[in-house]
Amino acid sequence: LSDHSSLVVGDREIGMVLSIAVEVSVQGHVATVSSTLQYENQEQSPLEAIFVFPLPGEAAVCRFSAKIGQTEVVAEVQEKQKAQEQYDDALSSGQQAFLLEESDESPDVFKLSVGSLPPGEKASVSLDYVTELAVQADDGLRLCLPAVLNPRYQPQGSDSGSGGSAQVSSVPAGSVPYSLSLSAHVSSPHPISRVESNCPLDPLNYLNTEKTQATVSLAAGHQFDRDVELLLYYQDTHQPTAIVEAAQASAKPGSLMGDPVVMLSLYPEFPKDVMSSMTSHGEFLFVVDRSGSMECPMHLGSGSLDRISSARETLLLLLKSLPMGCYFNIIGFGSSYESFFPKSVEYSQKTMDEALQMVKEMRADLGGTEILQPLKHIYSQPCLPDQPRQLFLFTDGEVGNTKEVLDLVKTNAGSHRCFSFGIGEGASTALISGVAKQARGHAQFITGQDRMQPKVMQSLRFALQPAVVDISVKWNVPKEVSVTLLSPPIRVIFQGQRALLYAQLTGEGSVTVKYSLAKQPVENQLSFSLKPAEDTGMTVHRLGARTLIQSLEVEEREQDGEKEGAKEKVIELSVQSGVSSAFTAFIAVHKGDGEALQGQLLRRHVPTPNMSPHQVSECLCDGERPCKDSCYTDMSPLQVSECLCDGRGPALQDSSCYTDMSPLQVSECLCDGERLCKEIILCRYVNGAK
After folding, report:
1. What is the predicted pLDDT for the residue at 271?
2. Do 78 and 203 have their domain in common?
3. Where is the VWFA domain (predicted)?
4. What share of the chain is helix, strand, coil (3-state, %, to 5)?
5. Which residues are registered as beta bridge partners of 172?
C-alpha cells in the first residue's frame, strides 16, 4: 500500500510514509470498521506524528493497537488526563507510545499521536469502531467512511477550548500524500440486491447462491476528494429484527458486558387511513448556512455545483412543495443572520413567489459559520397556535462548537422538530445527525445532484406526517427477567423509518411499542428469543455502551460540571466496555529493549484533506473578493496568502510564517478576531505552539 510519497511543507519534508487500509464487516444494519495506518520515519531524528481525522459521529471506537516490528501493543482505555500524562511521560523517557483521543468540541473528530519512532523505524497502528447504518430515502443502508475534514469555524467567545478539531493540518483534497484501500464483507439475513458508491468500486462478488454474503472493494487510486459512501440494498429491508448477544465471558455478571444485550430493529407500521391524510399545518423555518465556506464546490469533479447553489436548489424544491395554508420563513446565517420576512408568513402563491426570487439571489456572503445566535433567536419566538414548528437546517457543518449547538437544540427540543441537511463533502456527522436526533427529526447528507430530490422529499413527508404522541415501550418478559434500557426513550417515529433499541436483560420475551397517531391508538409487537446470535464479536454490547455513554455525556454537560456523577459513570462504562468517550482515551506504551531513544524529538502533523479554500479568501479580502479564481483550485496556505492580496491587500512581510499552517490557521493569524483583516499579526508555529 505504501507509495513512499512525502509531503513538503515550506522547506521541510515530512519524512514519513502513511497509507491507510480499511476492512469493513457489515452484518445486516450494523458495521465493524477496521483501519490500519502505516508509518515510517525517514528522518534522522526520533519522530512524533500527529494525525487529526474524522470518524462518524455515532461510531463507537472499541479497539486500538500498534505493531512495531513483530511486537503488538494493545491499548487500554483510561481517563483522558491520566492517559495524556502517561503518553507524555513515555516520550520524555524515550519510550514509544501511542495515544488516541476524541476532540473536546465534537465527537466526530479524533487525534492520533504516534511517538517516538526512531530513524528508519516502521509502525502499524490499527483502530476498530462499530456503527449503525442509516436508512436512506430509497431504502438503502448508508455506510460513510469520512475522508475529508474541513477546518471548522470557532466563534469568538465560544466556551469550547482548542481541541483536536482546531489543530488540523490541511492540504487541498486530492493532494494527500498517502493512499487508501477499502474492502467490505457484507452479510445479511436477506438477499443483497446491490451495492453502490459515490466512488469507483470493483465488481460485487457474491459468496453464496442465496446472495446473502458478498464482498466489494474500492477501486485503486482514491484521491481523498470526497467521503467514501457505500449504499447497501437488501430485499425486505423493513422487516423488524432482534439480535441477542451473549455476555463477555471475562466480564462480571450484572455489569453491561457481563449480561446479554439485545438490539431491536423496529419498523412501526402506520394505519393507511391516517397516512393518506397528511397534515397541511405547520410553521416551516428554513435555516440556511451562508458562510464563506458554502461557496466551495460540492466535490472536485467536473461540473460540480458550489454548496450554496446546492442549498438553493434544495430550498427551491421544498418551497414549491409546501402545503397551502402553512406558515414559513427563511433565515440565512454566517457571522450574522437575517430573515426574509420579519416573522413567518402564510404560504400563498404571492409569498412563495417572493421567497423564490430571494432564494435565487441568495449568496454565501455572511462570513463565519455561527449557528448559535440564529437558533437562539428562533427559540425566543413564540410558536404559532396549531402550527407545529418544523426546522429545516442546511449547512456544510463546518462548526467548531458542535456540542454547544447540540445542547441548545436539546434544551428546546419540545417546541419543534429539526430536519437537517449536510451539504457537500466533509459535513460534520456529529452536527448534522446530532441536531436531528436531539430535535426528533431526520438527517440527510447531500454530496451531489444524484438522489437529492428523493432525500429532500422524504424529509418533507416526515415533517408533514401527523405527530406521534404518547410513545411507550412495554417489555413482556417473565418475572425472573430484568430489563435495563440502554437507549434513550423513543421520541419520534416516522412511517418507513427504523427505530433501534438496546437493552441489557436476562430471560426470554417480547417487546411492545404503543403510541397514538391522529388520536388513534397503534400497537406493534416483536417477539424474540434470548438464544445468543453466533459470532457477533460484542458489536451489540459496544453499540449499546456507546448509546448510553452519549446520553450520559449530554447529562454531564447539562450539569455544567457541578456534579461528578454523570462524568464518573461515563469513565467507568468506557473503561469497562472499551468504548471511546469524551472523558477517556486509548493509551499504549511500547517499552522496547528498555533503552531510551537518543536525539531531539521532531513533531510532524500528518495532513488531512479539506475542501474549504474560500474561508481564507473571504477573511483576507474583506468580502470584496479581489482575488484570482485560479488561486482556489490548487491551494496551499502560502499560495493563498500570495494570491489573495493580489497587489491590493496587505503586504505579506513574512510569508514564511504561513507555509506551515492550515487555511484556518492562516486566517486566524492574519485576522483580528472579527474575521476582517485590518493589520498583519506576524506569527510562526513551532512544534504546534504559536
Report:
1. 72
2. yes
3. 283-464
4. 25, 35, 45
5. 610
Rounded to 5°, the CA angle 111-47-18 comes to: 60
Rounded Cα–Cα distance for residues 232 and 23 (Å) = 16
1 falls within a domain: no
Nearest to 114 by CA among 162, 80, 73: 73
- The CATH number given to whatever domain includes residue 588 is 2.60.40
Cβ within 8 Å of residue 681, ≥6 positions away: 669, 670, 672
113 neighbors 50 (Cβ within 8 angstroms): yes
Q: Are strands 19-27 and 179-187 parallel, antiparallel or unpaired?
A: parallel
pTM for the whole structure: 0.76
Is residue 555 included in any domain, yes or no?
Answer: no
Of 655, 650, 683, 686, the C-alpha closest to 669 is 683
d(CA 346, CA 277): 21
Give the residue, 422 or 138, on which the prediction is more confident: 422
CA distance 22 to 3: 16
Q: Judge residue 570's burial from the number of C-beta atoms within 10 Å of its C-beta, 0-12 exposed, 13-18 middle, 19 or more buried.
A: buried
- Give yes or no: residues 129 and 202 share one domain: yes
d(CA 459, CA 392): 9
Quickly list DSSP for 174-193: T--SSEEEEEEEEE-SS-EE
What's the domain count of the chain? 4
Q: Where are the alpha helices (DSSP H) in 93-213?
A: none
Q: What pLDDT sits at residue 154? A: 58
